[in-house]
């Protein structure tokens, strides 16, 4: 659905007490056979209609409601009661509970990306099997490269590449927690994907993640030719906090004259305050809790005056003219949905091409629930389609 909205106040962001809250039985998948795939919001919807509902839980799909019920029954401690390291450990342990089986790749390679302060960021490159090279090695884990013959063949293709920035409220998450998603996007879009372990709060507070994200783009451009990638066909993307970073990097790229093919944003946070209707409607019981948002904010950017800057709240940027085209995928039952639509509308009003999809009856984090939530697969396909159009593949 394409939807524009006006008259929104400002809100807040970031990611996710994840699926580690589920019991690890993983037995939801068989029910997918009995339900239709991907219900969308009809084109007449408005954010007002989504956010003001007498019983917002009734908006959830049956499968989404079942996932949330299982999270509740699991009885795990809330995210905001954990130390950052405990939160990271729990997130890592549960990140694949409802995720898809990882696609095998033609090539998987660990990279080192330098930053402005002399640090080196770990990143990972995935290159999918393509129609031109269908019989390459099946790389299930990271290597320094594929076989010499296959790597040379892949390198000659000058593949377009998505730089992916993971979600996790700037505090949790990693390349590993989002690997399955990145592999699936690479497979569907037939492009390379590079995901980055940017530094996390509270050890590295704002604006370190912003600096790391931007430095990663510059380093990827510098290394593209050696990696068999096309430096002129780079997109940036991410989910939640990573979506915010991707939006900020796209604005920085515009200012620096660095061309980007696309900004691909899954439910990004775009504003500084939690004051939209969706933040109130979906504050509790919809995966991303208001207490978790406060927790992540306080870890990453405790100085509230810093939250007014567009490096944290992209809607606060003076103008968005000339920024890269945008594909955005939002969850209907998400505290962040209103601010996502507000940013999409800001881009549209500035003449930036925008493709906005709002997936009905699902919550924040749904894109990592592909075994249980069919809308996740639809969102992956929609994002991949946008990447292929942007890359001309």
Q: How is this structure best described in words?
A:
The chain has helices at 47-51, 62-74, 84-94, 148-155, 179-189, 208-227, 241-256, 277-281, 290-300, 337-349, 374-391; strands at 107-114, 120-127, 159-165, 192-196, 229-239, 263-266, 326-333, 354-363. By secondary structure, the protein is of the alpha/beta class. The chain has one domain (19-46, 56-391): Alpha/Beta hydrolase fold, catalytic domain (Rossmann fold). Helix 5 packs across helix 11 and helix 6 (208-227) packs across helix 7. The protein is globular, with a radius of gyration of 19 Å.
Defining traits:
single chain; 393 residues; Rossmann fold; 8 strands; 16% strand
Would you identify the CATH architecture?
3-Layer(aba) Sandwich
Rough outline: globular
**What class, by secondary structure content?**
alpha/beta
Taking pLDDT < 50 over at least 5 consecutive residues as the criterion, the unreliable ranges are 1-49, 144-149, 151-156
Give helix % range: 25-40%
CATH hierarchy, class: Alpha Beta
Report the portion of residues in β strands: 15-25%
What is the mean pLDDT? 85
**How would you spell out the order of helices and strands?**
HHHEEHEHEHEHEHHEHEH
How many domains comprise the coordinates? 1
CATH topology: Rossmann fold
Number of helices: 11
């Amino acid at each position: 659905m394409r939807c524009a909205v006006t008259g929104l106040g400002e809100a807040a962001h970031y990611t996710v007490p994840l699926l580690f809250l589920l019991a690890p039985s993983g037995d939801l998948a068989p029910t997918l056979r009995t339900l239709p795939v991907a219900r969308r919001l009809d084109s007449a919807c408005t954010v007002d209609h989504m956010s003001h509902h007498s019983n917002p839980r009734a908006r959830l799909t049956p499968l989404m409601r079942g996932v949330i019920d299982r999270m509740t029954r699991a009885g795990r401690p809330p995210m905001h009661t954990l130390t950052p390291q405990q939160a990271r450990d729990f997130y890592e342990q549960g990140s694949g509970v409802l995720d898809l089986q990882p696609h095998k790749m033609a090539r998987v390679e660990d990279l080192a990306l330098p930053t402005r302060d002399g640090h080196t960021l770990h990143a990972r490159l995935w290159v999918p099997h393509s129609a031109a090279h269908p019989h390459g090695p099946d790389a299930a884990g990271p290597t320094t490269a594929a076989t010499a013959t296959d790597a040379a063949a892949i390198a000659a293709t000058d593949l377009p590449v998505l730089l992916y920035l993971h979600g996790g409220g700037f505090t949790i998450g990693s390349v590993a927690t989002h690997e399955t998603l990145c592999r699936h996007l690479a497979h569907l879009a037939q492009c390379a994907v590079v995901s980055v372990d940017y530094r996390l709060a509270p050890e590295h507070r704002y604006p370190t993640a912003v600096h790391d994200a931007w430095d990663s783009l510059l380093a990827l451009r510098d290394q593209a030719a050696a990696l068999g990638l096309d430096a002129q066909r780079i997109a940036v993307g991410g989910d939640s906090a990573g979506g915010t970073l991707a939006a900020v990097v796209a604005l920085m790229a515009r200012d620096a004259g660095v061309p980007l093919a696309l900004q691909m944003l899954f439910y990004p946070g775009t504003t500084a305050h939690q004051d939209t209707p969706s933040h109130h409607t979906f504050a509790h019981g919809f995966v991303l809790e208001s207490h978790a948002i406060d927790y992540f904010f306080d870890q990453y950017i405790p100085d509230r005056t810093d939250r007014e800057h567009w490096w944290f709240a992209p809607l606060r940027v003076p103008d968005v003219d000339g920024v890269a085209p945008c594909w955005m995928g939002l969850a209907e039952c998400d505290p962040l949905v209103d601010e996502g639509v507000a940013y999409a509308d800001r881009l549209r009003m500035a003449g930036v091409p925008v493709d906005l999809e709002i997936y009905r009856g699902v919550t924040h984090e749904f894109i990592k629930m592909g075994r249980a939530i069919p809308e996740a697969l639809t969102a992956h396909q929609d994002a991949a389609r946008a990447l292929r159009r942007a890359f001309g593949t």
